[in-house]
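Protocol step 4 of 6: structure prediction from sequence.
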Amino acid sequence: MAADSILFSEEERDILQEIMNIAFGNATAELAELIDIQVILSIPDVKIIDFQSLPDHLGEAINHGSKNSVTGQKFWGDFSGSGLLFLPVGTERILSKFLNVSSLDGGENTPEEDTLPPETLKSGLLLEISNILVGACVGKISGLLNTSVSYTPPELLTIDSSDYQFLLKHFNADQAAIVMKTLFQFEQQDINGLLLVMTNHDSVKWLKNALHEFINAYEG
């Protein structure tokens, strides 16, 4: 029997997937407002895996061998976990023109940009995108499930890497991860990213109760 079927019933999985669909949609809509690009989402996928399998799982989800920059942001409350954003090499150059960061897309520097090294501008842009996507997504999940969360600032975990083994040191490898992910694409731009929301066994009991309260509110 699969691990996810032990922790969640089919109905609970369906509810969670629908909530993720709403939350991911909300996150990309907020980013689209800022950069004026439509973001195309895949259907969210919910899986339960052990943390040791996470790098292999990501390798299958992301284009094989492609290099990505990874940002992470932790959140805590009734619903606790981490949000991870994977963006391919060159994302910052393509999106910088929509966020007025001229030097990254070959344009002229602003006076403020003249004082900052390119790597600082690059990491700042990646963190800004991560903050929008993870914050909007997790915020929508917690709102739909009638709770609230607090956040750590987003952190740049790696730049332009295709090896995700380093992620294991950021999590308790003895626990299972509830991995909620969606692939997305920026319309008319050659960018395909991955947004991941992870929680663990410590949040399962609360999450199951919250899912039933969510559906009962609509059925009642």
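Step 5 (inspection) to follow. Helices lie at 3-7, 10-35, 54-61, 91-96, 111-114, 118-144, 204-219.
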